[in-house]
């Protein structure tokens, strides 16, 4: 196999994951790359040999079974070992969704079980006779990436603290059931936790109370229904868990500074920050 090969990947602008590059490099001794930056995520899997990977957060000795991770717009530098240079595979992609915790929280992870997936992504010849514009190979790469994410999430579950897992479960309940009569007590009961203890760990991990998180999430959804989907106030109130329209109107005005029947103020761009949840826990 040539020392450097890159598979032709057509930008299909897929959502929420869009593969953009895939390749293989058997590096010469002391072969450098960078400092450089990219606009997409880039995962390198080291098949053999060694090298050094440098980010703003540190410098890492990388070897077989390691994955070093380049985030969008991070400035990185990496160089192969002077005695035993590395060979690696890579997949690059853009993402519109939160990624597994190991990818967003670390510059390097040891995951030898991912080798087969990276190898399959690069070595497959199933699509050589297909029209490159049809996107078949790119959808195949999406499947590979979802499998990588799933395996990383599996291994990450055991390392999460019990408190963070409870908060993660609570946020999932809020995002799925905000349109019902959901409240903090019912969430705590679902998790088999004391309400006070649940509120305490939620605040410790997120920085806000579960009541505020629930309210902020409902208000964000309400504004989208009113402004984007042009729903009326009654429909919006019932859709975000407020059977009482007057209670909804009071909550909305307290949150945004204007009634739901009124247009946003001229400084809506500044007010928009209120629409963003102050905390979003990362997915596994």
Task: Give a description of the structure.
This protein is of the alpha+beta class and 284 residues long. The chain folds into two domains: 4-157, Regulatory protein AraC (Jelly Rolls, Sandwich); 162-275, Homeodomain-like (Arc Repressor Mutant, subunit A, Orthogonal Bundle), CATH 1.10.10. The protein contains ten helices and ten strands. The chain has helices spanning 101-105, 115-123, 136-157, 162-177, 184-190, 195-206, 210-227, 233-239, 245-256, 268-271; strands at residues 4-6, 17-26, 32-36, 41-48, 51-55, 58-62, 66-70, 76-80, 87-95, 108-110. The strands form two sheets. The chain has a six-stranded antiparallel beta sheet with strand order 1-2-9-4-7-10, with helices on one face. A four-stranded antiparallel beta sheet has the order 3-8-5-6, with no helix packed on it. The longest helix has 22 residues, at 136-157. The radius of gyration is 24 Å and the shape is elongated.
What brief labels describe this structure?
single chain, alpha+beta, Jelly Rolls, 284 residues, Arc Repressor Mutant, subunit A
Mean pLDDT: 87
CATH superfamily membership of the largest domain, which one? Regulatory protein AraC
CATH domain fold name of the largest domain:
Jelly Rolls
Please give the CATH class of the largest domain: Mainly Beta
What is the number of beta strands?
10
What's the N-to-C terminus distance?
Answer: 36 Å
The number of helical segments is: 10
Helix/strand class: alpha+beta
Alpha-carbon Rg, integer: 24 Å
Structural shape: elongated
Q: Let me know the largest β-sheet.
A: 6 strands, antiparallel
Q: Order of helices and strands, N to C? A: EEEEEEEEEHEHHHHHHHHH
Question: Percent helix among the residues?
Answer: 25-40%
Q: How many domains, as an integer?
A: 2
Q: What CATH architecture of the largest domain would you give?
A: Sandwich
